[in-house]
Design brief:
The chain has 372 residues and is of the alpha+beta class. The protein contains ten helices and twelve strands. The radius of gyration is 32 Å and the shape is elongated. 19% of the residues are buried.
Length: 372
C-alpha cells in the first residue's frame, strides 16, 4: 500500500520509505515513474532538462519549466496556472521527464509552457491544506445543489486549486447537461471561480480508487494510464461466460483486465479450427461441443447422438476438415479419438458404500477403561 502522507515531513522526505520519493517499490504515489537514472550522473557538458513533473490530487500530473530553480524529488512547489497559482509535489526530474513528455505528445519547445514560481512557502502549504480539508464538505453541498436543480449528473470529485481561488468539479453524465444555472449557484455558495470537467466512468473509478475482485487496488488508479476499448468478444475468445455481474468492474464497464491475456489467446487460436465448422463422417455430421485452447483439444459429437463426446487433437481435426474440403468423407470419429484413462475410470460401475461411513469411529481404548 502507499505510504501515508508522504509529504508530511519538513524536508520533503516521504514518511514511509525515506528515499525522497525514489523508492524501488514505486509505492509512495500512484502513477509514479521509477527514476532509474537517480544514481547516474549526467555528463558535465550536458545541461539538465529544463522541465519537471509535478503531481497534484489523485494522480493528476503536469509538466512545468524549472526556471533554473534547484529542485529535488519530493519538493512542494508553487506552479503557474491560468489565474493564480497551484501547489503540487515534484515526482520526476531529468531526462525521464523528456521521455514522458514525448510519450504523451507534449512539445517542450512551445512558448506557452507553464513554469514553477518557487518552492512553496509555509503560507502556501497552509492555504493548500485548508483548501484540501474543505473538499469533502464542498462535494456534499454541491451534490445537494445539483439535485435541487434536478440535473441528471453525478458530481464524483472536487479539487481546489492550491491558492484556494478556484474549484474544479468532476462529474459524469449520460447526456449533455446545461449547468449554467448550477455554476451561478456554485459561485454564489463557494465564492470561488468554478470549472466543470466531465469525466468518463473509467476516469471516475480511477480518481476514486478501490479494491478489485482480485483483491488488489484498481489498475486504473495505480498504473493504467490509457483506457483501451473492451468488448464482449474479448470474453468470448477466452471462453468466459457472458455474465455482466462478473465481467463488469466498479465503473460498470467491462474490466480492463480482459485485454491483458487476449493476445495470447488469439495467438493460440490461430491453429485451432473454429467451433462452427462441422465434420462430415460416414456415421453422420459431427459438431464441436468444447475446446481446450492451451491443451489443443476439441470434443466432437454426432448430431443424432449429442451425449457421446469424442476428444480430438487440433492437428487431427484440421486434417479431417481438409479432407472434407477435398470432397472425401471421414470414416468415423472413433477412429481418430484420443482414449484417456479418465474415460475408463468414468465407465466403471459405482461402488456401493456403507451408510455409516461418515460416522465418527468409536474410541475402543476409552470404552475398555470405563469397564475396568
Amino acid at each position: 500500500m502507499s505510504c501515508k502522507n508522504c509529504i508530511s515531513k519538513s524536508n520533503g522526505t516521504p514518511r514511509g520509505c525515506n528515499n525522497n520519493g525514489a523508492c524501488t517499490s514505486n509505492s509512495c504515489n500512484t502513477f509514479t515513474v521509477f527514476d532509474w537514472l537517480n544514481d547516474i550522473t549526467a555528463p558535465n557538458n550536458k545541461p539538465a532538462f529544463p522541465f519537471c513533473e509535478v503531481r497534484f490530487k489523485n494522480g493528476r500530473k503536469g509538466y512545468f519549466k524549472t526556471n533554473s530553480i534547484l529542485l529535488s524529488i519530493g519538493d512542494i512547489v508553487a506552479t503557474q496556472s491560468e489565474k493564480g497559482h497551484d501547489v503540487g509535489v515534484i515526482t520526476l526530474l531529468g531526462e525521464l521527464v523528456r521521455i514522458q513528455m514525448k510519450k504523451k505528445d507534449i512539445n517542450h519547445e512551445s512558448g506557452d509552457a507553464l513554469g514553477i514560481y518557487r518552492i512553496a512557502s509555509q503560507k502556501d502549504i497552509d492555504v493548500w491544506k485548508i483548501s484540501r480539508d474543505k473538499e469533502e464538505a464542498v462535494k456534499v453541498r454541491a451534490r445537494k445543489l445539483a439535485l435541487k436543480l434536478e440535473l441528471k449528473m453525478k458530481i464524483s470529485d472536487v479539487e481546489y486549486q492550491g491558492d484556494g481561488n478556484k474549484i474544479i468539479f468532476y462529474y459524469t453524465a449520460d447526456d449533455r447537461v446545461d449547468f449554467r444555472e448550477l455554476i451561478k449557484l456554485f459561485a454564489r455558495e463557494f465564492k470561488s471561480r468554478i470549472e466543470m470537467k466531465q469525466v468518463g466512468l473509467r476516469e471516475e473509478a480511477s480518481r476514486l480508487g478501490g479494491i478489485g475482485s482480485c483483491g488488489r487496488e484498481l489498475c486504473c488508479s495505480t498504473w493504467l494510464h490509457d483506457f483501451r476499448a473492451v468488448n464482449t468478444s474479448s470474453a468470448r475468445y477466452q471462453q468466459l461466460s457472458i455474465n455482466p455481474g462478473k465481467l463488469s468492474g466498479q465503473c460498470g464497464k467491462l474490466k480492463c483486465c480482459l485485454n491483458y491475456e487476449l493476445g495470447m489467446y488469439l495467438e493460440a487460436l490461430k491453429d485451432i479450427p473454429r467451433k462452427e465448422i462441422k465434420i462430415k463422417t460416414k456415421k453422420g455430421i459431427a459438431v464441436c461441443q468444447k475446446v481446450n485452447i492451451f491443451k489443443r483439444r476439441l470434443w466432437y459429437s454426432y448430431l443424432d447422438h449429442p451425449i457421446d463426446w469424442y476428444e480430438l487433437d487440433a492437428n487431427t481435426a484440421n486434417n479431417m476438415i481438409e479432407t472434407n474440403k477435398k470432397g472425401d468423407t471421414i470414416s468415423s470419429l472413433e477412429d481418430f479419438a484420443i482414449v484417456s484413462d479418465k474415460d475408463n475410470v468414468n465407465n466403471r460401475p459405482l461402488k456401493t458404500d456403507s451408510i455409516t461411513r461418515f460416522d465418527r469411529p468409536k474410541n475402543r481404548k476409552f470404552n475398555k477403561l470405563e469397564k475396568t
